[in-house]
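Take a specimen:
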Amino acid sequence: MAKEEAKQKIESGIRTTVRRMDEKDKLSLDDRRKRALGRIQERTRRPRGRRSRDEDELDVRLVSIRRVSKVKAGGKRLRLSVMVVIGDKKGNIGVAIGKGKDVRSAQEKAVNKAKKNMIKVLLKGQTIPHEVTIKYKAAKVMLKPAVPGTGVIAGGAVRAVVEASGIKDILSKVLGTKNTIPNVYATFNALKSLKLTRFKDEN
């Protein structure tokens, strides 16, 4: 039935389009019908295949922009390094760094790279299941579960990762360096290290 209705709509559209065509047009009736059919199909055509993550409205957060240079034979080559955090606020997050001539190209590279390295964060309601402390290079980050209504108690680097993952109640503390990049990776590794076995203590 759906195919018949679609076919009827296309045929009615063809007739309407043909009537509106200029009578002085020297094209034959068959050629005019083919042209009208092509126009209708172009308007109704939809892309096939699976939807991309961009269509699923990923939360993209730009947390760091740096100006980097590379010395070559002709002189210094200046580029931009961008760090992004992406997440669907349902437990899936990714972190990556991209480089490019401008912020837009660097951000696109970082987002594509982060999509390939996304992880699933173990959540307990709107918080994490247990306390965790992770050290990454000079950064050291501590995350603690919180009762509902607490909110996200975190700084800029930690907050970007936590909110992108969908956590709404959490306590955190940055114990090491204040640099954004190592703190983001430390938070990412902390969420990645959460384990399900801690649930057994509460049952």
In short: The longest strand covers residues 59-72. The CA atoms of residues 48 and 171 lie 44 Å apart. The longest helix spans residues 2-20. The chain has two domains: 2-44, 59-198.
